[in-house]
Amino acid sequence: MNTPVMAGYATPLRQMLNKVPEITLAFWIIKIMSTTVGETGADFLAVNVGWGQGVTRAVMGTLLALALFWQLRARRYTPWIYWLTVVLLSVVGTQITDLLTDGLGVSLYVSTAAFAVLLGVIFAVWHQLERTLSIHEIFTPRREWFYWAAILCTFALGTAAGDLATEALGLGFTKGAIAFGVLIGITYAAWRMGGDAVLTFWIAYILTRPFGAALGDLLTQSPTYGGLGMGAMWTSALFLTVIVLLVGIAQSNISGRQASPITEGNLYKSKLRRDTALLKKF
User: pLDDT band for position 16 (50/70/90)?
Assistant: First the structure.
């Protein structure tokens, strides 16, 4: 027989069951770097390795399907699975926008507007059904599906908006990176001043995509085109190394906390032991 969750333990239980990481500085560093890898990695595989756009899309799409399968089957937040999925979503999101722009000739103005509307629809349906868009409560399959659909759309939207700003509007890589960086800073300031946490999170999440894309182009493109000339291979390798290190630390930290099964009884017993220990001091 299942016992109801006691009011005092509902929050920690949900936190432990949540399949999305805590929002820390490391989260944003990995997010931005995975965004940049999505921009540089797709170009490296398609151009430098010589796979071409078609093969690259097929391989990345297959890997993303496998990563999502592992992520959705996982019972708890597992850093390496989660961030592998994010990196692959970044690559695939970039490829979707590039396919529309380069392959089908869709205007960046149109694709940016279309992805913005699609993301708005995802958020509207998500909120209508779940009454929340908070990433601190991703502990049901339906919420997780909404979450990953929104993430994929933010990558596609960010790619289109970034290309629109740096190419169509002529900002260039340096000014584009600075402009989106400033917008992220304004969003952070708004949150610190009491702005809605959920709204500011998703705005920042969207903005990190074009910021990371502009940063990736700035690092990889030759000086002739306004870049620093590092190349896609070295930029991707450098950022992937940092991502692997940070994810490895997160995986190591969380493994100890998840050593025992998550149950309401265990949470209650843990709280009871702490209270008993405090009483013994008096």
Answer: low
Distances (CA, A) of 35 to 32, 110, 281: 5, 22, 51
**3-state DSSP assignment of residue 222:** coil
pLDDT value for 86: 94
User: What distance in Å separates the CA atoms of residue 214 and residue 175, rounded to the nearest whole number?
Assistant: 9
* Distance from C-alpha of 271 to C-alpha of 9, rounded to nearest angstrom: 9
User: How confident is the model at residue 121, as a pLDDT?
Assistant: 97
Identify the CA nearest to 136 among candidates 27, 33, 63: 27
Q: What is the pTM of this model?
A: 0.81
- Contact indicator for 180, 36 with CB cutoff of 8 Å: no
Cβ-contact 32, 212 below 8 angstroms: yes
Kindly list the domain boundaries of the chain, sorted by start residue. 7-280
Find all residues with CB under 8 Å of 36, minimum gap 6, and list them. Answer: 212, 213, 215, 216, 219, 235, 239
74-78: Cβ within 8 A, 24+ apart: 74/19, 76/16, 76/17, 76/19, 76/258, 76/262, 77/18, 77/19, 77/20, 77/21, 77/254, 78/251, 78/254
Q: Taking the CA atoms of 142, 143, 148 and 153 in sequence, report the sign of the dihedral they define.
A: positive
Q: What is the DSSP string of 21-83?
A: ----HHHHHHHHHHHHHHHHHHHIIIIIS--HHHHHHHHHHHHHHHHHHHHHH-SS--HHHHH
The 8-class DSSP code of residue 193 comes to T
* CA–CA gap between residue 268 and residue 54 (Å, rounded): 53
